[in-house]
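Deliverable D4.2, example record:
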Amino acid sequence: MRSRRLPPWVRTKPATASALAKIGSCASAKGLATICVEARCPNRGECFQAGTATFLILGDTCTRNCSFCAVRSGRPAALQPDEPKRVAESVAALRLHHVVVTSVTRDDLPDGGASVFARTIEEIRGACPDTTVEVLIPDLRGSKESLGGVIRAHPDVLGHNLETVRRLYPVLRPAASYAWSVELLRVVRDTDAGMVTKSGIMVGVGETREEVIELMRHLAEAGCMVLTIGQYLRPTGAHYPVARFISPTEFEELERLGAEAGIRVVVAGPLVRSSYRASQIYQDLMTAQ
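Output generated by the structure prediction step:
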């Protein structure tokens, strides 16, 4: 039996009109998209009111069609060479202390979009030298060479989401590789041990407790420092159904299990997403070092 009705602990805080206008108008003026809106993130109200957002680069159309994701899929438009500069201008205009940059997956590009990530990091550094930069990258078509280009641009945080446990990849992420996603994080650790590495997963899609523990162990062995865990919420009736809703007590246990596996920071909760409170997580991690 699939769960359909939202439990009382899965609630979102709506954004104020002024917060929506501030972020939305700035992004729109620069011809940019945010993953907050494109992926229908449940935290966009809280984040917008705090003056934070996650910018979406490489356009707004993904070449893949994962069954859980709300981002549109299809044939992407051509790259816009000035996109990295426009992101940096938006970061400066919003006076962000910490910015997250992510993208759609672009399997049509030889480097999977790695060079655009690198240029975006460089542009933000030039325009906002005091802003910490976090990137959440796709799998870059399994290329270590492309990944190296992003690492050399030296973001403060490099994230790559596993999204789900190994067994469910053929169903939820058929074009992706669980093994490479883990290896990607290991390559970052081995190339630059000082760079913060981060991943995120969703639960409630049919995974078992043992499978999540296995995933945590794999991430810890790869040197992943931060893991976010949130409840999967079905974007539309056409997307993969929710298997069950995880209780707050279970999320607390997941945090404990992640810490026991060796991951330094585990943030788990019904509405937690990969960019949720990213600035605070980074600051806490740096303070603890």
